């Protein structure tokens, strides 16, 4: 009897643990809280961002908009005497109220604050006479959002608009890039905020190169390079971080 009770307790604990974990492949739409600069950053320095849209999970759970993503600078090298500058960082903690998740993430997409802002303005320009629910906006990556309706990739419907916050779409790969679509059976619609379903890589950051996204060893580390001056990513920039794994 005691053995049966012990085995049942272990199974129940394992089930709770699995429910608390964030499924691999889940994408977090994040806005940087402050700027990154390879000339000023120091190894170990804390960095953070804010989740910008509710992220749906299994069993009706969700990561609420406003949750904090915390990370740190791994290394930084300033541009000196023509040497290419670089900046390595990783985001390894998700804070939701009193809950903390240790996680590993990779970078799917990164865009400037200007891109983020433009994706939230209707195609016709600022219009105070039209309800936001009736706007048509363009996502970073080119897809069109009909607010209160659908998200279109050309003539194909890829998801739906979420009023006041973003979109829910099925992630897809983009031909000619290393970015993947749905992985490990995680085929639920993802919260991509202002990004297209196939948004991948760097947007409007012509001086930067994504040398390492964090998918392979060293897993979780993101490395940016610049061959013209220092690596600079302005505060307010938007990111799509994809979860490699988590531990509650």
Short description:
With 248 residues, the chain is mostly beta strands.
What does this molecule look like?
The chain has 248 residues and is mostly beta strands. The strands form 4 sheets. The protein has a 6-stranded antiparallel barrel. The longest helix has 19 residues. The chain is globular.
Secondary-structure map:
Blueprint: H1 2-20, E1 27-32, E2 36-37, E3 46-51, E4 55-56, E5 62-63, E6 68-77, E7 85-96, E8 99-111, H2 113-118, E9 136-138, E10 144-146, E11 150-153, E12 156-162, E13 166-169, E14 190-191, E15 201-203, E16 208-212, E17 222-226, E18 232-233, E19 238-247
Parallel strand pairs: 8-15
Antiparallel strand pairs: 1-3, 1-19, 2-18, 3-6, 4-5, 6-7, 7-8, 7-17, 8-19, 9-10, 10-11, 11-12, 12-13, 13-14, 16-17
* Count of beta strands: 19
Distance between the termini: 31 Å
Query: From N to C, what is the helix and strand string?
Result: HEEEEEEEEHEEEEEEEEEEE
**Which assembly state applies to the chains in this document?**
single chain
- List segments where confidence is low: pLDDT < 50 over at least 5 consecutive residues: 5-19
Radius of gyration: 19 Å
Biggest sheet strand line-up: 1-3-6-7-8-19
Number of helices: 2
Largest sheet: 6 strands, antiparallel, barrel
Mean pLDDT: 88
| Proportion in helices | 10-25%
3D shape = globular
Query: In what range is the share of β-strand residues?
Result: 35-45%
Helix/strand/pairing class, anyone?
mainly beta
